[in-house]
Amino acid sequence: MAILGDSYSTGAGLVEGFHYEADSFWQHLKSPHQTPFEPLAAATTYTQQHPSEGPIWLPSSPREWQSGLSALTWSFMRKIATEFIDEPRHSWGYLLARRYGIPTRNIWIGAQDGATTADLLSQIERLLHYNERQLPSYTFALFTLGGLCASTIAEIQDVQSYQNEILRALKYLYINTTPRKDHTIPKVYLLSPLSLPAILGNPAILNKQVTAHGESVSCQVLRQRSFLSRKEDSSHQHPESQIFGHILPPNPAHDCPRLTVLTLPRRYTSS
Fold it and tell me: What residues form DSSP beta bridges with 217?
């Protein structure tokens, strides 16, 4: 089973102790880091496997890059995301696959943080390159956060572009996919974006407390302030964290419009 899409499909920001803030992220990087894989408390009916196993992050395809430098940059950013930001075991795709008993080694994640439908073609190529140009039995794609929940109006993807990029990627998939060795027909599911009223008007999201600009504040208050700091001096506490100001979003908007964060456990407990 393959999972394609944006930050909703990677479990972005669900690593314990992570916040979309440069100073907080720098402290997070310096702290002792472990990646435990104990079963989730709600997963008592799942197939028990070795605790060190996890879903597979699909590697990049040689067709994705124009130069070695672009490949190196992507690999560096992907490593930071998968080690310190993303927790795929709390993503909808992983939980769906485990609910149906799919082994973790057969859950492939080609999604990436901040992606839009313009990245779907690259993610499909990543999947085909990994699996000998064949699709797995099931492929799911969901794009909501990157194109529809941007930090500013100017970054929101228009409807025509959203549709055209999807059609372009599906045409590429049709042309470049080879038949499966078991002669079965793979299924591809393109999921509808989450409803904006459900995201923006959900009381649980509005009342959610997040760390932003050095303080704990609700998402509703942040939206009223346009996700800006109420302090005139917004300089970094740690000089080293300035570099992450160019990597992380300019404000914590991405930490608020999430339904999955509110319903999944933040800590791991053995079952």
Answer: 210
CA distances for 74 relative to 35, 40, 80, 162, angstroms: 22, 30, 10, 23
Cα radius of gyration rounded to whole Å, the chain: 19
Q: Which of 138, 128, 147, 7 is nearest to 58 (CA)?
A: 128
Confidence of residue 150 (pLDDT cuts 50, 70, 90): low
The answer to whether 236 and 23 are in contact (CB under 8 A) is yes
Tokens of 192: 């509808």
DSSP track, 10-75: TTBT-STT--SSHHHHHHHHHS------PPPGGGTTSPP--TT--PEEPPPPGGG-SSHHHHHHHH
Q: What are 164's strand-pairing partners? A: none
- pLDDT tens digits, 7-29: 888 887 776 666 666 666 666 66
Looking up tokens 């908007």, which residue turns up? 253
Q: What is the model's pTM?
A: 0.73
> Which two three-digit tokens encode residue 131?
């699996």
> For 60-80, b where at least 16 C-beta lie within 10 A, e where not — what string?
bbeebbeeeeeeeeeeeebeb
Distance CA 117, CA 266 (A): 28
Give 83's DSSP letter: I
In the block, residue with structure tokens 């440069």: 22
Residue whose pair of structure tokens reads 């795929």 in the numeric block:
88
Determine contact, residues 244/25, Cβ cutoff 8 Å: yes
The predicted-structure confidence for 87-146, as pLDDT tens digits, reads as follows 888 888 998 998 889 999 999 999 988 888 999 999 999 999 999 999 999 999 998 766
